[in-house]
Specification:
This protein is of the alpha/beta class. Helices cover about 40% and strands about 20% of the residues. The chain is built from twelve helices and twelve strands. The strands form three sheets. A six-stranded mixed beta sheet has the order 8-9-10-5-11-12, with helices on both faces. A four-stranded antiparallel beta sheet has the order 4-3-6-7, covered by helices on one side. Strand 6 and strand 7 (about 165) form a beta hairpin. The structure holds adenosine-5'-diphosphate and magnesium ion. Magnesium ion binds near residues 136 and 266.
Length: about 350
């Protein structure tokens, strides 16, 4: 036996990895707290005109809308070139997530002003809106990461399968397994490909499973994440030596290994090249149906390519939500129209 491969070393490794995971979460929170923009390529949209009131999701009187865009001749061409896919949703009234009256403030400064969002089970819900409108905060509130910031205060309900995740007594470890998260920057653990995927399986096992007993499940998850063929010959390679796109698929695999019902993705392709982006989009389309995805993206073409449903946020309010095709092709709100043409323009 390798002298390094002792049970106590394994336990130390696992402790370190758990710590690493916490650090990854903290780093993400720190970035926000420091006011570092989540994505420098995101287009800032200048507020200008008032949004007309909506029957379903009324914007508050104070909610400005983005400036009417400079004429965007490319918009229609881009919209037409988008591929359409069949919906993943079996029953639109069966909600995996129901966000009700969600208010989030940092140091008393309210960022989300009573947000209501429906996420039908099995679907891909795309959250779009200008930089700083609260998309990441909303996403991080779903699996209760927002509260890691000591200045955060949170009010309202987020029901997962009808149960409020903010109920007292919610098991946060279990919640974060049921609602996995993939971040903007791929963040594999600094360990082998195998150990990244096996991480959640080992955490959930009662006694330490052998590598050979985990291998079939590791393969299955890597297959589902579309990475198996590229890594099967060397599962003991350090995950950090993979390309960015492969690392992001590995992070999706690591999330899938916990068998989640929902995966939250915060601009998962913004650090990737177009080919890797296409690969991740394909993967999301394959995964949807058997699980639900909530994705934040600043790429409207992507939101339309993969979204079954969409919600448009502006300054902490949901301006419009519903079927992605409707929201992007025939929005009810002038504000939504302006945002769409602005982004394409
Ligand atoms: N931990 C935090 N502490 C203080 N302010 C925060 C924190 N997280 C987010 N914010 C603020 O909330 C607003 C919305 O941020 P965010 O949710 O990241 O928007 P988006 O993802 O739409 O760009 C920003 O003004 C941001 O500075
Ligand atoms: Mg963000």
């Amino acid at each position: 036996m390798d002298p390094m491969d002792t049970p106590s070393n394994d336990r130390a490794d696992e402790r370190a990895v758990r710590q690493e995971w916490r650090h990854a979460l903290d780093r993400s929170a720190d970035t926000r707290a420091a006011g570092i923009p989540s994505d420098p390529t995101e287009v800032a949209v200048t507020p200008a005109v008032e949004a007309p009131p909506s029957a379903t999701t009324p914007p508050p009187a104070s909610a400005p809308t983005p400036a009417p865009a400079v004429a965007a001749p490319a918009a229609e061409a881009v919209a037409k070139s988008l591929t359409e896919h069949p919906t993943h949703v079996a029953d639109p009234t069966d909600l995996v997530l129901a966000i009700r009256g969600l208010r989030v403030a940092f140091s008393g400064n309210e960022i989300l002003h009573g947000v209501n969002i429906d996420a039908p089970r099995g679907g891909v819900l795309a959250l779009v809106g200008p930089s700083g409108c609260g998309k990441t905060t909303l996403l991080r509130s779903i699996n209760r990461l927002t509260e890691l910031a000591p200045t955060a205060s949170i009010d309202g309900e987020i029901q997962l399968d009808g149960q409020n995740v903010y109920d007292r007594g919610t098991d946060l470890n279990l919640l974060r397994r049921r609602i996995g998260m993939v971040f903007q920057q791929p963040n594999p653990f600094p360990m082998t490909i195998f150990d990244n995927v096996a991480f959640a399986m080992r955490e959930q096992a009662k006694s330490r499973p052998s590598r050979s007993s985990l291998l079939p499940a590791v393969e299955d998850v890597l297959q589902r994440a579309g990475l198996w063929d590229e890594v099967k010959d060397n599962l003991d390679r350090n995950a950090l030596s993979l390309s960015g796109g492969q690392q992001q698929r590995l992070c999706i695999a690591r999330t899938l290994a916990a068998n989640p019902e929902v995966i939250l993705m915060d601009e998962p392709c913004s650090a990737l090249d177009p080919r890797s982006t296409a690969r991740i989009e394909e993967l999301i389309l394959q995964l949807a149906g058997s699980l639900s995805v909530v994705i934040v993206t600043h790429n409207l073409a992507q939101a339309k390519r993969i979204g079954d449903y969409a919600a448009y946020l502006l300054n902490g309010d949901v301006i419009e939500q519903g079927l992605a095709r409707k929201v992007f092709e025939d929005p009810e709100q002038q504000s939504t129209r302006d945002f769409i043409s602005g982004m394409f323009g």
